[in-house]
Design brief:
about 45% helix, 3-stranded antiparallel β-sheet, alpha+beta, 3 strands, rod-shaped
């Protein structure tokens, strides 16, 4: 009569290693996707912050100084340029004369290239009313 020794067979060890490898591969893929989404969220946050900063710079200008030329002269800050390489800032100013008092609608758009072939864009619209002096 043969006695059976306690332990694992070679087949059991190979199956366990294969299951462990599959689990590690799945975990690695999830971590890569998570890191990519985190980078995209960081870029979107940086763009939103920069759009808000541009709106504040425009709000600091005198009403008559807000012109399409002045809007187009706005540039991204160095911090935004480093967080969003190859980003483009587009600022438009439109005078709306259908209401009293008149106001200007200012639209700020920041777009940047993305690895997933989409062009993410953050749009921020603000209004500046003419105050009576």
């Amino acid at each position: 009569m043969t006695t059976r020794r306690p332990g694992f067979t070679l087949i059991e060890i190979i199956v366990a290693i294969a299951l462990l490898a599959a689990a590690m591969l799945s975990a690695t893929q999830v971590l890569m996707i998570s890191a990519r989404q985190r980078r995209a969220a960081d870029r979107r946050f940086a763009a939103q912050l920069e759009a808000s900063n541009v709106a504040e710079r425009i709000a600091a200008l005198d009403y008559d100084a807000i012109t399409p030329e002045a809007a187009q002269a706005m540039k991204l800050t160095p911090d935004a340029q480093s967080a969003l390489p190859e980003a483009e800032l587009k600022v438009t100013s439109v005078l709306v004369e259908t209401s009293t008092p008149h106001y200007k609608r200012i639209t700020i758009e920041i777009g940047w290239p993305s690895s997933d072939r989409q062009l993410p864009v953050v749009r921020f619209t603000t209004f500046r009313h003419k105050t009576e002096a």
